[in-house]
Specification:
Helix content: over 70%
Structural class: mainly alpha
Radius of gyration: 21 Å
Number of strands: 0
Shape: globular
Strand content: under 5%
Number of helices: 11
């Protein structure tokens, strides 16, 4: 049973979320920019450069969901204002882009315009995230009633299913583009926040784990690409390598947080002494 949850501001998690946002921008630029379309047989150095960046940034979605679980496992209810804010932000930017394109006299097919007027598939993360948040109070209530071993067992079962039959498309994971996969990551993040966050790990080992799992994903993608398959399938959010990589990335955050917190306290003490020494 849960006996306590880390509640104080965690600057390491903030840093992880900021990094994930940067990674998300990078992922979209790599994909939309066409850099991932290069054939490995045609230009190997260019292929390696593009897919190396992809393999490093692919943790973005998982890290966001894990961070949500890490920070929100103690919450018993959700605020309707928070959900409304997410929905309004998505609508604002979607409609603003449409308005700008209309003023620029860009021809937009009616089916595309409808998708952006009522955000659906183009905003899959917003929809999946809302689903996860709506279920989070029930998830948190269940977490509080589970012993540590039971909670860990639940996560292992969900992960095992997700990276095997789920990855093969038989569990409606949609390659990780689903509320179900965000919920799995939410539970992992909650477990880390409750039971693992206070454990001290060496940052160098965690960083090495992140880089090695990224390298494993890259090697797998290269093997599949050379065989004429789709390298993109190997970079799914729900592969075992990407999930492990996401865990390493998030776990680096707590040691960084401890250092930031320690430095912040030292700075506060210094400033306090300095201000008191100033003449009236």
């Amino acid at each position: 049973m849960v006996v306590g949850v880390v509640r104080q501001r965690n600057y390491g998690i903030d840093l992880a979320k900021i990094s994930a946002m940067f990674f998300m921008v990078l992922l979209h630029n790599l994909y939309v920019g066409g850099l991932l379309n290069e054939q490995i047989q045609n230009d190997l150095p260019r292929w390696i450069a593009a897919w190396s960046l992809e393999s490093l940034a692919i943790v973005a979605v998982n890290v966001f969901a894990m961070a949500s679980g890490y920070l929100s496992a103690h919450r018993e209810f959700i605020k309707s204002a928070e959900l409304l804010q997410i929905i309004l932000q998505a609508l604002f930017w979607s409609w603003l882009i449409l308005i700008v394109l209309q003023f620029a006299k860009v021809q937009i097919p009616s089916d595309v315009m409808l998708k952006y007027l009522l955000p659906d598939k183009p905003f899959w993360y917003v929809n999946a995230y809302i689903g996860m948040i709506l279920l989070s109070p029930f998830l948190n209530a269940g977490i509080k009633r589970l012993q540590k071993k039971q909670f860990l067992g639940l996560i292992l079962v969900l992960v095992l299913i997700s990276v095997t039959i789920g990855y093969r498309g038989h569990f409606y994971l949609e390659g990780g583009y689903s509320a179900y996969w965000l919920i799995v990551n939410y539970l992992i993040g909650a477990y880390i926040g409750i039971y693992v966050a206070r454990t001290r790990f060496k940052k160098t080992k965690l960083l090495l784990g992140y880089l090695l799992t990224a390298a494993a994903s890259l090697a797998w993608a290269a093997k599949v690409a050379y065989a004429g398959g789709s390298a993109m399938a190997t970079m799914s959010y729900s592969t075992i390598f990407v999930l492990a990589q996401s865990l390493f990335f998030l776990s680096v955050a707590y040691p960084i947080y401890s250092e930031i917190q320690s430095n912040a306290k030292s700075s506060q003490v210094f400033l306090s002494v300095f201000i008191r020494s100033l003449p009236d």
